[in-house]
Each structure stands twice: as structure tokens, then as C-alpha cells.
Amino acid sequence: MGTGETIVFWVSGTLAVIGALGMVISRKAVHSALFIALTMINLAVLYVANFAPFLGMVQIIVYTGAVMMLFLFVLMVVGVDASDSLIETIKGQRVAALLMGIGFSVLLIAGLGNGLMNTTSVGLDAANSAQGGNVEGLAFLIFTDYLIAFEVTAALLITAAMGAMILTHRERWYPRRTQRELSEERFAAGEHPGQLPPPGVYARHNAVDTPALLPDGSTSSLSVPDPLRSRDDVREVNQDDLDEIRQLSAGASTTEENDR
Amino acid sequence: MNPANYILLSALLFSIGAIGVLVRRNAIIVFMSVELMLNAANLAFVAFARMNGNLDGQVVAFFVMVVAAAEVVVGLAIIVTIFRTRRSASIDEPNLLKY
Predict the structure, then answer these.
(1) Average pLDDT over residues A152-157
(2) Choice between B94 and A172, residue whose per-residue pLDDT is larger
(3) Phi/psi at A26 (5° precision)
(4) Which of B52, B56, B66 to mutate to test the interface with A (most CBs of A within 10 A)?
(5) Quick one: how many helices (H) and strands (E) in chain B?
(6) Averaged pLDDT of chain B
(7) What pLDDT was estimated at residue A131?
(8) What is the pLDDT averaged over residues A50-70?
(9) Where in the sequence is the domain holding A209, given as residue range(s)?
């Protein structure tokens, strides 16, 4: 292990542990997902440092690319604010679990550290260059010694995809409602069944704050959008113009206004 | 410094994942902790491959990744289905088998 790798190990290792701790500690599930994404990216760096460039790339593509995005997607479906319940089903379970977890980690690390103290590392230089490179070496192994496991993996992936489709499939328990049924329901509700009248269109204004004219010359306040109506921003209709229109439609040849 | 340090780091990450599974109640976070444990095991495989000087450990790590991807798909589908019927993502909620 050279100096460069030592630096990589301590930086990436520390970041990975920070990400893992943040994942367990943070209250919001989205923060947990982002923390574990950090851990996975740093693990990819550590794979590359361990002479496994192919696995490093696969780690980034499969884990941070696909798996974490799937996690985030499901978080959005399930509800981002779905936080932990504080009720303990078993009394003292949290504290006991924490103590046992810490004890487990101490035991594991002490045991492994003790056992691995005087091991020597062979290194992968010979194995990686035997077939011409890391990817070639992995391909050689996968398609010779591990061929059956590889084939079974394909069956597993197809089964998993089928399982996901069957599990998330929603059965239609009642027949699809027809347009007639929807329409009858709308009328039975007793509210305004159709669309509201559109805003008025005059020669000078076609803005939405112009109310529509009813046949008797009054205006319909329903034709102006709610926010404008609540702000009293409805444009006034010029009564003189209306009278003029009435005269014209009653048969008057011209009006004084037009003579000028 | 020798590559055994990677094994120790992997043990640490595995323990953090185990604590997460035991302590958290949100099904999705429990699931992420399981993923962390799988990743820690992968790191151990890669480091062991290097220490033993052959690529079999990396092949196994590759298979672990495939199985983990399949497991995530099915597990998340189960979580979505439970959420749809029980309106909750807490792992304390589905206790109907108790009665």
C-alpha cells in the first residue's frame, strides 16, 4: 500500500463511515437516502483503490445510479414525511439494540483485527494481468468457472422483475365508469354542471378581467376568475357603449358618437 | 498499512448497518441499512480477493450486487404494497399475524 492509497483509504473510508452514521441518525428518510448515496460513492472509490475498477464502475452505475434512485422514487410514493414512530412495541428495544450493535461491532473489529494482524497481501497485479486486465480476468472467470451461477442470476433477475410487477399490480374491483354515469353524478350533485362562462370579449379589451355580458346587458361575475373577483379587480363595463349598442341593434342608422 | 484495514472498515460499516436495522422503525431506512450491510460485505470480498491474489472474490462481489439489485426491486414492491393497504411505512404496523 503506497502513500497515495493510504490517503485515499483514510479520506474515502472516513466519508463512507460518516455517510453510514448519517443514514442511521438522520430523522428524515430523504436525508438518509442521500447519506447512503455518499457512502456508496466512497465505496466505489475504495473498490478502485483495491484493483477492482470494474466493480467500482458497476457500484456507481448500479447502486448510486439505479438502486438509490429507486429508493428515492419509492420515498416519494410512500410519503417523504413518513417519519419514525416513537412508540416502542417492545420496551427498551432501542437501547438494547444499540448496546448489542456496539458490542457486536467491538467484537467483530477486535476479532478481525486480531486475526488479520500478521497477514500478508499477495496483491492482484499477477491475477489482473493474467488475462490482459481486470475486466478480461473477471469475464474469463464468469464465463468459465461461474457460468452456471451467471445463468441462474439471469433467471433471478427475470423472477424479480415479474415479482415486482405482480406485487404492485392493482386489481380493478369495479367496472370502469362510463361517461354517462359520470355526467349523471355531476348533475345529481346539484352544482353548476357545465363549465363557467368565459370572460367577455369586446373590441377594446379581451383581458380576463373583462366580465361577460348577459343578454339583458348586465355582467356575469362568474366569468371573471376567482382571484380577480376577490381583489375587486373586475373591469367596469362602459354604460354609454352599451346604450349605443342597444340603439344600433334597435335600428338606429347612426349615433352622434359615430358622426363625429 | 496493510489491506486488512479495508476488512476492518467493512466490519465497521456492517455494524452500523446492523444497528440501523435494529434501531430504526421506518421500513425504507431499514432497507437502506440492509443495503449498507451488503455493501460492507462486498468491500470485504474485494479486499480478500486482493489479499489472496485471485479474482474469485471480485466475481462473488459482482454476484452479490446482482442479488442485491433483485432484492431491492422485490423489497420496495412489498413496501409499496403494504403502504397501499395499511397507509404506513412503519415496520411495527404490520402485526396482523399476531392475533
Answers:
(1) 94
(2) A172
(3) -65, 145
(4) B66
(5) 3, 0
(6) 89
(7) 81
(8) 91
(9) 197-259
Q: How many domains does chain A have?
A: 3
Over 90: is that where the pLDDT of B39 sits?
A: yes
Weakest-pLDDT range from A85-89, A184-188, B45-49, B81-85: A85-89
Q: Do A164 and A201 belong together in one domain? A: no
Residue A52 touches chain B, beta carbons under 8 Å = yes
Q: Are residues A204 and A144 in the same domain?
A: no
Give contacts of A113 with chain B, Cβ < 8 Å. Answer: 4, 8
- Summarised one tens digit per residue, pLDDT across range B63-74 is 999 999 999 999
The answer as to whether A76 is a domain residue is yes
Beta strands, E only, B1-99: none
Q: Kindly report the backbone phi and psi dihedral angles of residue A65, in degrees, each rounded to the nearest multiple of 5, phi listed first.
A: -80, -55
Which stretch of A33-47, A138-152, B76-90 has the lowest confidence by average pLDDT?
A: B76-90
Of A24, A77, A112, which has the smallest distance from its Cβ to B7's Cβ? A112
Bridge partner list, B26 = B90
> Which whole number is the average pLDDT over B77-94?
82
Structure letter (DSSP) for residue A237: P
Whether residue A12 lies within 8 A of chain B, CB to CB, comes out as: no
Q: Mutate one of A43, A129, A131 to test the B interface: name it (highest B CB count within 10 A).
A: A43
Q: Which chain B residues are Cβ-neighbours of A104 within 8 angstroms?
A: 15, 18
Domain end (from A81, A111, A136): A81
Report ipTM (2 d.p.): 0.91
Rounded to an integer, what distance in angstroms lies between the CA atom of residue B27 and that of residue A139?
Answer: 37
Alpha carbons A80 and A194: distance in angstroms, whole number: 37
Instruction: Identify all chain A residues contacting B50, using CB atoms and an 8 Å cutoff.
Output: 50-52, 121-124
Same domain flag for A6 and A48: yes
Last residue of a domain, one of A81, A109, A133: A81
The reply to whether A112 falls in a domain is: no
Q: Locate B19 and state its grid cell.
A: 444497528
